Amino acid sequence: MGTLVLPRPYLLFLGDATECGFAKTALGLADWAPNLCLGEYGLPGCTVTAGLPPLTPAEARSKGARALVIGVANVGGVIPDQWMDALVEALDAGFDLVSGMHAKLASFPRLADAAAKAGRQLIDVRTPPSGIPIATGRKRSGKRLLTVGTDCALGKKYTALAIADGFKARGVNADFRASGQTGIMIAGSGMPMDSVVSDFLAGAAEILSPDAPQEHWDVIEGQGSLFHPAYATVSLGLLHGSQPDVFIVCHEVGRTGILGVSGYSLPSIPQVIEQTVVMGRLTNPAIRCAGISLNTSSLDAVGAAAEIDRLSTELGYPVADPIRRGAAFERLLDACLA
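^ that's the sequence the OP posted. Answer follows.
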């Protein structure tokens, strides 16, 4: 699997994004690796911000930035034509390009030519290693926690990062295991699960979380949702291969429909718990839900606390917003480690 060595610091490219859910790479890097991010660069029409200083490539390069990171994760992982001028501008300014998109940077002749002329790198993070085996289903040593969701892009990565940090703060031996492009950029290593051939998804998840000491926890970043009509395959392969002892259901307050598709309503949290247990028992009969991670970013502190209390009473599980932390988050950690 190896450890990625990326040129840093970053200028985050927001493209023409108008929805935060599709700029999760930039937002995740700004939240979890702020020391690596010097600024952001958006095109006309972009309405999303990562809260960083707006800089042109030339301005960012003069401040020491070394790589332009495509901070957008759109449907299909495509690089549209309207981005090309900006990406070439960055190469000409002396940047390497780092992408987590499905589309490969070098497949665009204009980018390949510009990179060659400028002597710059085109780095695709979403490239799985060669030689991934099919899954064995063998029970591995160590303990595992997987974040799952009612939908995609609502907090599975943030939850896994926060729980891994919380475990470590308690003296628990734990590692965050990245399964998507943003997590890999933060952690420096991982497995781009949604770029793995379907027959090898569970095997890739086994590689992501190998045998470990019995008291060690791997906290695994979830992908997609078992209820998403496009991404459920990746979610299921990750569930089977990671063999989680514990899972956390992630949900965003106020979201009612599946992101990126029309006509599909969000499943209820109890539906997600039931489905995850039924399907997860194939490779870990002892799988259990420890609680709910609630994205309350649309609420103020008082409203968030009220919603956390209401949902915990209704569902009978610990509920917490891992970004707000506090006593509710400590109770969620208690349930994970119980």
